[in-house]
Amino acid sequence: MVRLEHVSKSFAAIKAVDDVTLDIQRAAITILTGADGAGKSTIFKMLVGLVKMDSGTIFLNGQDIGGNYSCLTSVCGYMPEKFSLYTDLSVEENLNFFAAIQQVPLRRREELKQRLLERTGMGPFRHRRAGALSGGMKQKLALSTILLSSPELIILDEPTTGVDPLSRIEFFTIIETLKNEGKTIVMSTPYLDEAEKGDQIVFIKNGCIMRQDSIAGLRNSFPARLFRILPRDNIFEAMAGIEAIPGLAGQAHMRGKFIRYMQTGTENLGRQIPHLEMVEEKPTLEDMYIYYERRQ
Amino acid sequence: MSTPVPAIAVSDLHKSFGHFQAVKGISFDVLPGEIVGFLGPNGAGKTTTIKMITGLLKITSGTIRIGGLDNRKHLAAIKKKLGYMSQKFSLYALLTAMENIEFFGGISGLAPHELRARMHVMAEQVAPDVLRQKIQDVPPGIRQKVALFVCLLPEPEIILLDEPTSGVDPEARRNFWNEIYGLKKRGKTLLVSTHNLDEAEYCDRIIIIHNGDIVASGAPDELLRRHQQVNIEALFENAIKNHGQN
Questions:
Q1: Alpha carbon distance B115, B101 (integer Å)
Q2: A282 and A144 assigned to the same domain
Q3: Can you tell me the ipTM of this complex?
Q4: Which residues lie across from B14 on neighbouring strands?
Q5: Where is B120: in which H helix or E strand?
């Protein structure tokens, strides 16, 4: 639906976004993930025209928008990382206000509002002041305010950061429903276990895209294998043993009673470390992210 | 084999704030050398429980024993055993990382030469120019490293970490857990609260808490088997929903 081509942006001497080419597919969830300062927010801000690109092109449905951001902003809803709600207004008053500034026709307003309150489970809190809501509920209200204009493209900048796990699960369920209704979603998150629920994954570091692919694509092209080893003897001694093998330092880490080990060559660790169990595991997104990050 | 004296023994612990019951009679042990994970939504009672263990918050009823000592009677002795890293990393935002370390080193009673000897650990991990930046300007991963370093200066036996990995990027998070295992190797006991459910697998045992009650506890793989769940997220969601219905 949207394509950024060779997009760059510098702030003084810092290259925040460095020649990024990114495809956002229709009716899918695209997830950008990377450390703080990787350039995720800047990409979103350039997409909606809040930050001017130094160079590059944005295409909407195959057409170069040529600096005419209104054709993009008219079909998108953008929720910044530090979203703004009117804390002294109630949930319903916030929705009324945002519906008014987004020029939602009056006759549709009530129906839309009802649907959003229902969908987010916020109906019982409609008269509560936004400032008195929990973090997770504020997030859901902020999402509702951008959904009032029924955008096709939904841009969410770290919507779940700092939100507790239960609220995060609920928030993602709403996002999945939106996708199933045909909406296009692009969001950033530092939580890689959450990113596993996306369709397209984009790993970003220092303003550059390290990888972008579907989850299945990432897995299929991943050049290393991951093993879970249950050592026979003391796990700390087993770890020290692995660290001492030339070239293998940093390839293994402990997780509970297991050692997880990334095999990048033809070495056979099973022969060298006495173990009770050695099973190949599917690498998680976090494993893949760390693998690529260390090789940058 | 006789069971060892628990490092932390919490028994029928209650905490009320006015009419609100934040913790409703929970009991659990943490054994010496164990890593126990404390999971739950916001407001579940995790921080309240941790603060009662440290003695920062008064117990409404029930007991907490640290290495067999009642923490209401022997607080001074217990404080020497405990290290606590709070959710907001109580570092001074306007001081540099280095100044924070010197300050906390000073109040922990460490002699300046001892502190200098310990600094090499920090210097190996963090570049000197970063240590000279104000703590408010360094990335969350570094801030967390400094906070943990400071918490460990008095060499506590039992370490309580309240959401140490919130907002920390994946690589820093993995390095952090490596450090935790380093502590376990040295025989330390750890109670770690977290919002990252995938970290449950790093722990020997987890305790899931919701609305002031323990809704599930045990070794992560054993819990998944017992509740017939595929992953910790499903287990967590289920434990909390079932609890809501009772």
A1: 9
A2: no
A3: 0.82
A4: B24, B61
A5: helix B112-125
Instruction: Specify the residue for token string 């276990």.
Output: A193
A166 touches chain B (CB under 8 A): yes
CA distances from A176 to A3, A182, B30 (A): 22, 10, 39
Residue B197 has its nearest CB partner, among A165, A255, A290, at: A165
Q: Which residue of A has its CA nearest to B171?
A: A290
CA distance A24 to chain B (A): 24
Convert the pLDDT of each residue in B139-183 to its tens digit.
Answer: 888 888 899 999 999 899 999 999 988 878 888 889 899 999 999
Domains of chain B, start order: 30-57+75-245 (3.40.50.300)
Other residues' Cβ atoms within 10 Å of the Cβ of residue A82: 7
Choose the final residue of a domain: A219, A253, A270.
A219
A255: domain range?
A: 223-294
Q: Which of A226, A237, A289, A234 is nearest to A260 (CA)?
A: A226
Total residues belonging to chain A: 296
The shortest CB-CB distance from A290 to any of B42, B174, B197 is to B174
pTM of the model: 0.87
Q: Any CB–CB contact under 8 A between B43 and chain A? A: yes
Q: Model confidence at B45, in pLDDT bands (50, 70, 90)?
A: very high
Region label for A58, one of left (φ > 0), alpha (ψ between -120 and 50) or beta (otherwise):
beta
For residue A108, the surrounding DSSP H or E stretch is helix A106-120
Q: How do residues B67-106 score in pLDDT, each as one tens digit?
A: 999 999 999 999 999 999 987 777 899 999 999 999 988 8
Average confidence (pLDDT) per 10 residues, chain A, 296 residues: 95 92 96 89 94 94 90 92 91 94 90 92 93 90 94 94 87 94 94 91 95 94 94 92 84 92 85 90 93 88
Same domain, A31 and A119: yes
A154 and A249 together in one domain: no
Whether residue A134 is found in the same domain as residue A229: no
Q: Which amino acid is at B154?
A: P
